[in-house]
């Protein structure tokens, strides 16, 4: 059985890879030399969310989408598609299940000398089966 964080990360990456995005890749963590646009799933943080009779975890996930377009229009579309896929993903994980998946925020920023960066943040609570 995998840890809750590992099971969630694997399920999230598999869900996004199964979608037909207009990106060069979907990476489990920040890539070394990816070409824009691409999606990177961070490892986030995990805290205890157990109860009297079971083990649980609360995860903070951050998904970054990088795009070098002239405007943020394509990035807005990619953020929307990514959000739809995350919120529709299966709640059954390897040895765990998602009890709640809550959107926290979306943000787009740009470094004047670099690409656009879009970010989606979620709070996910899991329980061990």
Automatic annotation (TrEMBL):
| Database matches in InterPro entries | Gp17-like (IPR021508), Viral_Tail_Comp_sf (IPR053745)
| Record Gene3D superfamilies | 3.30.2000.30
Name of the featured protein: DUF3168 domain-containing protein
Could you tell me which species this protein originates from?
A: Sphingomonas chungangi
């Amino acid at each position: 059985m995998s840890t809750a964080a590992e099971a969630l990360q694997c399920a999230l990456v598999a869900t996004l890879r199964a979608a037909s995005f207009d990106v060069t890749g979907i990476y489990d963590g920040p890539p070394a030399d990816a070409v824009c646009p691409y999606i990177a799933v961070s490892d986030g943080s995990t805290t205890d969310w157990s109860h009297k009779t079971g083990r649980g975890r609360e995860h903070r996930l951050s998904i970054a989408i990088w795009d070098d377009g002239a405007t943020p229009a394509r990035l807005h579309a990619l953020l929307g598609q990514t959000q739809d896929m995350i919120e529709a993903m299966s709640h059954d994980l390897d040895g765990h299940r998602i009890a709640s998946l809550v959107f926290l925020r979306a943000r787009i920023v740009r470094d004047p000398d670099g690409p656009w960066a879009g970010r989606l943040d979620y709070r996910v609570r899991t329980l061990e089966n």
